[in-house]
Amino acid sequence: MVDLGAGVYRLKGARSGYLETAYGSHRLGAEGARVRLEAGQNLADVTLKLTPGGAIAGMVRDSDGEPLESAYVTLARFTYEQGVRAVRREAATTTDDRGEYRFHGLAAGKYYIGVEAGALDFPFRVDRSGKPASAEMSIPTIYPNVNDLALATPVEVAPGRRVSGVDVTMIRSRVFRVAGRVLNLPGRVVSVELEDARNSGIRDHPLRASTRNASGDFEFRGVPPGIYYVNTVADSNHIGTRIDVGDADIEGVRLTLQPGATIEKLQIAAEGDEKPDASGISMQLSEPNGRGYSVISMFGRGGVTAGRYPVVRFSGGLLRRFYVKSARAGDADILADGLTVPAGGRVQVAVMLASDGAKLEGVVRNAKEELAPGATVALVPNTRDRIYFFQTTTSDQNAHFEFTAIPPGGYAVFAWDDVEPGSWYDPDFLRIYEKRAQQTALGSRENKTIDLHLAIPPDGQ
Predict the structure, then answer these.
(1) Which of 139, 173, 207 is a domain's end point?
(2) CA-to-CA distance for 188 and 65, rounded, in angstroms?
(3) Which CATH number characterizes residue 226's domain?
(4) Among 24, 52, 155, 309, which one is most buried in terms of CB atoms within 10 A?
(5) What is the pTM of this model?
(6) How far is 127 from 178, CA to CA, in rounded Å?
(7) Residue 275 to residue 101: CA distance in whole angstroms
(8) C-alpha pair distances (Å), 408 with each of 85, 405, 450
(9) What is the pLDDT of residues 190-228, one digit of tens each?
(10) Which residues have a Cβ under 8 Å from the Cβ of 260 and sit 6 or more positions away?
């Protein structure tokens, strides 16, 4: 590559049959090492090692043992989101006329296979027939032929390995009816969803229905036993409740819609004389749900559902020079306690920025004292519940890393050559590496340089 301008780059390579790989990365999808080029600099002997993709293949059979055509097959694996470890969908396909399926181009790891009968478009169908649902039918099944993710067996794929014979036979079970009513309808039909609380990550989608009259009545048929969330969304207002389907139909579910609130910037100011343009700052609210956490970005957004959002974060380019020192809604400290949104009305948020942040930089080395480009570096405050002060970056081609606008305080600095994104928000995960972190205290406007070593898990972990 010639005639490149000075700057910071990321370099990726790809080839048919291999995984797209970023320079300096150790896993699929990782950012890899940043490549810094100065004016006139020549960077030679750059090596990109590509890994062949793996595959999983098998057959789906119905409950009578016959090959099942057009079955919907989901591939999923454990990941982290907002520090919560949960199963997330990676890909989906359908079986062919022989009941066979295949996933290819897979990174090494452990995967789960889930199957449902039906075509790819069936999540969007609404059953309006007058016929009663069958009392027994094939239900969503997870390899190896179970209906609970906690009982499933993952399929392990080594680099470039093709795993075949991952066959699934659909389970047949009694199914039931769930009926209820949405109150305070907005004068139109609204969608109602039934989400599997235990297996939502691998099921990929909820069951769907809609209100069918002015009273807001809705009905689901063919519901297998399990724990579910019944949800509806209208005008950005989300409301839900949890139900347990056991051995009988469920009647009388009630969902009461309430007017959503509007989140407003009351004030965004900075300490001192500088008056930064804060128009680019956004706020994210996180709330627990059946799949871990959902994240809502907002400022000036109406219809935010009433409830408590325990995690509040701010983002934007301005935060490379400033950090959020405080954020309040009335008398509430929303950084420490989260944000409580009432039904209706407006919530005004005041944010104070500070420019006295510290700077931390250094290099990462492995156990042989060799430079480690592409390492993931996490800056973690000693007060671990202050996750809005977490920062992460990757070391560049010279194994250099840098953090700026760090609030003064005590921190632990971790480095890994291969780590699941977001795992550093999990206290149990960090506890494994605690003794291998480097502790540091940073003062106001302090610049500090450290040497960091890759964290290696203790034996057996």
Answers:
(1) 173
(2) 45
(3) 2.60.40.10
(4) 24
(5) 0.82
(6) 14
(7) 59
(8) 30, 9, 16
(9) 889 898 988 888 886 778 888 889 899 999 998 999 999
(10) 235, 236, 237, 302, 303, 304, 305, 306, 343, 344
